[in-house]
């Protein structure tokens, strides 16, 4: 065999060995990436094209999201400096770090809700903006059909961001009042990531009493009726885009003011008993069985602290994080409850904030908004 032939065979063998090694190297690198926090992966994407390819693969993105740990996000408006801040509570000691803030920040900006590390933002004009505070990407959605006179507390500006696991689609639900104010009829439109328009999907009777809760691909919300002294839970399946109705537990099971929350990936009913002038004032948490959607289990009984009479509304920002239940009662105060302790009292979670804030369940993710939208900002 000539020397030339030997060199060619050696080069061919080296190429084969290199090609065989590439999948192993990629698998090892992917496993390393899975163990890194999302904030680090944002920088890793800029290293080279091969790393960008791995970190932009949607299968990897959702697998990394599945392994990520839940945190608490405190969203505040610094009115003095005309800016919005997205801060993450790192631990129970009050340690925080700041994420990227919205580029289109305004004094009236607020968070409707959070899903898969994406924030659904709104303002007093009814505009809707999506933000991934980990990557810094944001995008303004097309204007919903009804935005006039909107505020974060009105049903005509109530939005909820959710995710359909089977189709891997993010959708935003928007409720707005029907043409006749006295009819108590509320219309619903929905927007799918990557689309161009909002789509009407139907209407319902009864006005939503809060902004709704997204749990495992379903949006739940309490409704009330003008002439009927009762409420019920309406459900919107994001996959089928169909409505359903769920009745509240028997009245003897709760009897107080109610709101909805999501704890441990389950729908929960928060019930506050008592009146502002009477002590003690308590909150019970009933958890829905995920299998049959019929049975409610009483899980927690919490004593609320006495602050001022005006603060005694049903806490809407109640979240489960790090084995504890976190409750926001006032605009600048956050409390927590440890189910493993013998006490039923809420304890102060962190020092009083300099700015009013809203509390949201949050997980850092590298979901790229550009995967869904051509026009986006960075």
From TrEMBL:
<dbReference type="InterPro" id="IPR013187">
    <property type="entry name" value="F-box-assoc_dom_typ3"/>
</dbReference>
<dbReference type="InterPro" id="IPR017451">
    <property type="entry name" value="F-box-assoc_interact_dom"/>
</dbReference>
<dbReference type="InterPro" id="IPR011043">
    <property type="entry name" value="Gal_Oxase/kelch_b-propeller"/>
</dbReference>
<dbReference type="InterPro" id="IPR036047">
    <property type="entry name" value="F-box-like_dom_sf"/>
</dbReference>
<dbReference type="InterPro" id="IPR001810">
    <property type="entry name" value="F-box_dom"/>
</dbReference>
<feature type="domain" description="F-box">
    <location>
        <begin position="24"/>
        <end position="64"/>
    </location>
</feature>
<dbReference type="Pfam" id="PF00646">
    <property type="entry name" value="F-box"/>
</dbReference>
<dbReference type="Pfam" id="PF08268">
    <property type="entry name" value="FBA_3"/>
</dbReference>
<protein>
    <recommendedName>
        <fullName>F-box domain-containing protein</fullName>
    </recommendedName>
</protein>
